[in-house]
Amino acid sequence: MTDLPNPPSACPVCSQELLTTRLTCPSCHTEISGTFCQCRYCQLSGEDRSTLEVFLRSRGNMRDVQSHLGVSYPTARQRFNDLLGRLGLDEPVIGPEQVMQDLAAGRISVDEAQELLNAQRD
């Protein structure tokens, strides 16, 4: 079933969110009609779903996300925060204390810590 395209999430005419009104079993062809909301994860772009999958497979290791995206640690973290925002799961911007803890724990380099701290000033 993964070969099927994802349904559109917005109306091509007015851009409003679309609702699912029919479900079909590919095996026995049973159809269920009604009004169903769409899964928020299904509405993500392929790139966002891939990033989320890397995050989950790596058990939350942002270094793996960074490597997958081919960007710096702060950029990977920002892109992941943007993804959370698109899912409605915004988290607060990391504060200087967290940056310093990440630096002390060796999760980020001095340059990455500086980049994160500078981004907070902007």
Strand order within the widest beta sheet: 1-2
The SSE string, one letter per element, is EEHHHHH
Distance between the termini: 45 Å
- On the 0-100 scale, what is the average pLDDT? 84
Largest sheet descriptor: 2 strands, antiparallel
Structure description:
The protein has a two-stranded antiparallel ribbon with strand order 1-2. The protein has helices at 46-57, 62-69, 73-86, 96-104, 110-121, and strands at 20-24, 31-36. A hairpin with a 6-residue loop joins strand 1 and strand 2. It has two domains: 1-43, no CATH class; 47-121, no CATH class. The model has no long low-confidence stretch (mean pLDDT 84). Helix 2 crosses helix 3 (73-86) and helix 4 (96-104) runs antiparallel to helix 5 (110-121). The longest helix has 14 residues, at 73-86. The chain contains five helices and two strands, in the order E-E-H-H-H-H-H. The N and C termini lie far apart (45 Å). The chain has 122 residues and is mainly α.
Give a brief description.
Helices cover 45% and strands 9% of the residues.
Explain the layout of strands and helices:
Layout: E1 20-24, E2 31-36, H1 46-57, H2 62-69, H3 73-86, H4 96-104, H5 110-121
Antiparallel strand pairs: 1-2
